[in-house]
Amino acid sequence: MIIHNFDLQPSLVSQYLAEMRDISVQSDRLRFRRNLERLGEIFAYEISKTLEYKKLAVTTPLGVEAECGVIAEQIVLATIFRAGVPFHQGFLRYFDNAENAFVSAYRKYKEKENFDILIEYLASPRLDGKTLILCDPMLATGASMELSYKALLTKGAPAKLHVASVIASQQAVDYMQSVMPAEAELWVGVIDDRINDHSYIVPGLGDAGDLAYGTKE
Known about the structure:
Elements: E1 2-5, H1 12-21, H2 29-48, E2 53-59, E3 65-71, E4 75-81, H3 84-94, E5 99-111, E6 114-123, E7 131-135, E8 138-139, H4 143-152, E9 160-169, H5 170-179, E10 185-192, E11 194-195, E12 201-202, H6 208-213
Parallel strand pairs: 1-10, 4-5, 4-7, 7-9, 8-9, 9-10
Antiparallel strand pairs: 2-3, 5-6, 11-12
């Protein structure tokens, strides 16, 4: 698996990550969601550089044809509810002709620190031969991402796979490399050292879903 770590070169990703991590800033839900969208836009732009393009003749108002490059791949943007929605929206602002897929994956706790990952809902177009971009802000253990990808494979085998997360743990990155296709590409804003006993990334930023939409029962 090819790893793209934005933290290796300071950029606007660093600025938005600082705001999302900062406990004095992240309580502003609107700002938190918008920063997720901004990161989705940046990730989409960077991923666009790796795609295949074709030439298209476009007639301008001057009656002259201009040869332009347009994306030749059919993109499907997939996200995991609920924290992934604003991140996904950022991708969709740039890949505005993309098809979309949604997966509901959540932690079902059996004990305080013991849980299973369950998939309850999947809505997706056919994926055969397409470019799948699977995004979720937090990549803690990699289990949700792996199960979501396997669920999406019931809709066909994509030709290419990009996985995108704002913050990943090193454990999750290692796990992704062991279970995802070797030619897949992982895009992360930063890789943190560890996860705690509750499988939250440390230093991380907390629960991205709660910060974006409020706490849940």
